[in-house]
């Protein structure tokens, strides 16, 4: 399924960021193989914001992990920026944000953010610290650089995770329910933050969520998956322009589209 390149959002590039062809994935479960994904076909153009929704167990995290090269698919091919995901992974251009902020508790916010740069060995130590401070500013955490994770709120920790994922300028940002643990208002702040970051420095974002309103608020298009076996049911372009106005959440079009998505997810 090819996402409509004219859907909305960033003008310009319709070049492919991620091409998924006939990808299937089976896990060895206790009662035999589990077909986590079957025949996934999806093309994601560069610099789009794509959400993946669907019931628990429909293979969303598995698909994200396969795209990132964390686990190999059982069948099919994945291209990332024209290369195999394994080749692409070597260039370390993926940013991955997990559901739980996975920060090192003994490192400060700044040192957590610069960690990937330290590991890859980009720039001098002073340049790495400066870059980390830039990213902490971008995620509105200036003033907290020397705080340890335990001294930060959940939303702040998640922003440190996002800053860290952005540290080495990924072309592709994979986010697995990054705001799942946040309260509704912090979540909304994070949405605006993420859109601002995305508009400042365009990247291709693949965003997994259980929240339809979140998916509608953030995305150019929504991939609806269904379980057993995990598969793509529909790719739905988001109809309204990206929401500068939070009241758009209550717009009749948005409510109608939420209802359509719910129907898609719940029908067998
Ligand atoms: N390492 C694994 N070993 C065995 N089975 C697995 C493994 N990882 C995932 N599965 C199975 O694959 C299916 C898809 O799992 P996945 O975690 O991708 O779902 P999900 O859509 O992310 O669900 P959720 O919304 O609950 O996070 C599930 O049936 C799960 O039990
Ligand atoms: Mg998951």
Automatic annotation (TrEMBL):
Alphabetical keyword list: ATP-binding, Nucleotide-binding, Transport
SMART domains xrefs: AAA (SM00382)
InterPro entries, alphabetized: AAA+_ATPase (IPR003593), ABC_transporter-like_ATP-bd (IPR003439), ABC_transporter-like_CS (IPR017871), ABC_transporter_ATP-bind (IPR050166), P-loop_NTPase (IPR027417)
Pfam families associated with the record: ABC_tran
An example Gene Ontology molecular-function term: ATP hydrolysis activity
PROSITE patterns: ABC_TRANSPORTER_1 (PS00211), ABC_TRANSPORTER_2 (PS50893)
Domain of life, per lineage: Bacteria
Residue span(s) of domain ABC transporter: 18-252
Family statement drawn from the similarity comment of this UniProt entry: Belongs to the ABC transporter superfamily.
Stated name of the protein: NitT/TauT family transport system ATP-binding protein
